[in-house]
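Continuing the series of single-chain predictions for the mutant panel. This is the parent chain; the variants come on the following pages.
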Amino acid sequence: MYQKYYRQFLQAAQKAAAPGCDLPVLHMACHSHHFWPDVTLSAVNDYWQDAAQMADSKWDKVFGDKIPAFQRGIANALKLPDPGQIALAPNTHELVYRLLSAFDLKAPLRILTTDGEFYSFARQLLRLEELPNVEVVRIPTQPFDTLAQRFERELQSGNYQLAYASQVFFDSGVAFPELLALAERKPEGTEMVIDGYHAFFARPTDLSAIADKVFYTAGSYKYLGAGEGMCFMSIPRGCQLRPLNTGWFAEMAELENRADGVGFGDNWLRFAGATMDYSPLYKALAVLDLYAGDGVTVDSIHNYVQQNQQRFLTAMDAAQHPLLNRDNLIAHDLENGHGHFFTFRCGSAENAEKLQAELRTKNVLCDRRQQLLRLGFALYHPQDETFARLFT
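Parent structure:
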């Protein structure tokens, strides 16, 4: 029923059809690159038209109209009380590093995280650990059923300046159990970041109880389906951190009356950077407006995807595939603890590569990481898709 939003991407996908296969292309790498709804094409054109017609005065529209509208859409999706506390940047790494730069790197810096974080943050931590004053403690994600207790025990017992954890882990698709409740109990002196990229606009998320306790990061590239280049981080109200990595946008409210020294505002501009391309903002807004106009919510998206996932599991159980089976599926708790993709252990990178190639001959597009094969689910998958072709 939702395929009507994605006609242009779905038609373009057919150009990647495997020779000799008459089945339509089934894009299951959507936990990474989500197809964009058709409305994003006119949104990019609108940005160009605004730039052509308004030149420099387009910034009045961007900052006075478009950014506040996007912030309201994000706040509504996440139950955040103050849209003005949502900072924008081209990627989450820029925002997280700006937060890291607010700590005194001459003083001891202890960071608590997991061993399942996405490459961007994981790589940055490895580099930071080369400094003599930085210590990183990584809690193993597995076994998942005890992760919350193990992480919170260390968080409460250690003197950490920063804690960082994913809401849904990028490699497994497993949701961090009880993460929001855990964050509500974090020590007062510890800043905490929740990486929500693999959960935002996929799993229903209510941040109202912890809006002033955590930083929450995500973006439009994955489940919002608006492409790369538009990310955000929610900022606790009353935050007084002073990022060392700061751009001229952070002085946006004071440009006409600039004082000596480096001042910071009490809203999202505290973590603002500098000039960026705002066509991704127009795309993201177009998607938010499309869904709002048609009554599509995160809850309805999640329910639709879970129905697809359940049909997949039914077909999988009936097929007894040598690799795509319950024993190799890392987790399948759809009710409580899973994102919108499944991850299968294939035993070796060679097995994963071979399986990916076999699925490609059936017009199923997916991706892999070493021995892990990942299969994602999206709104643009037909309501009557059985997924049986994956197992034959």
